[in-house]
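User: Structure please.
Assistant: Input sequence and predicted structure:
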Amino acid sequence: MFALIQRCCFPTPFKLQKFAGPRLLLHGKNKTTWSFLNLRLQRDVYLLSRSSSLNPASVYASKLQAFHTSLPFFKKKTPKEYETRGPGVLQRSMTSLKDSPKPALYLSLTGLIPFVSVPLLMAIQGTYYPELAFAQVTYGAATVSFLGGMRWGFALPENSPAKPDWLNLANSTVPPLLAWQALIFKDITLGAIMLVMALGIALHYDISLLPTYPRWFKVLRVVGTVLMALSLLATAALKAIIEE
């Protein structure tokens, strides 16, 4: 009867039954104790055999998987990753500058001559000319006013992405006001510094607030603003150096 209950309720592998049988025959005096231990051992082995987490094959496979896993920064980059990298910022800017229309490019570069020629002439002759410095500041004020008025021409057409609202139209009046303030100053140095500030504000408007401008125009604006600002600061520096 016990053997029948054991087979029905606690199925065990054949090897375990064969191993546990002789121990019951050898220890006849403690038959009840060993039967209880045998039942506990069979139940524990059955539960362990049904568990998939302690399967030796799965544990070995997980160890192999963990052993063969490598971190991303140890992997070598293929040559294709280096080949797909785009050109640098300077190279892209020069390409965009070459794509600009010829009239816009030539007129912009020609308009920089009055800025660059004044400090260059003073540096060559070693003499400060107040008349030339004032002429440069006056030309700079006219240029700043022109750059501010471009926003009106960009925002007024009906199909323009910029609306003729208070923000666009009012911002375009800021550079001319600063240019007018630069002409009021009796000191050329203060006028040059005011014009540099006005050029920076106009550039910020064209680059950040109006992103729909073509790339060649933005590059042209950056190059022109840098040269104009350096020319004005060079004139102010030569004034301070030569007069001393």
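The chain has two domains: 2-65, 96-243.
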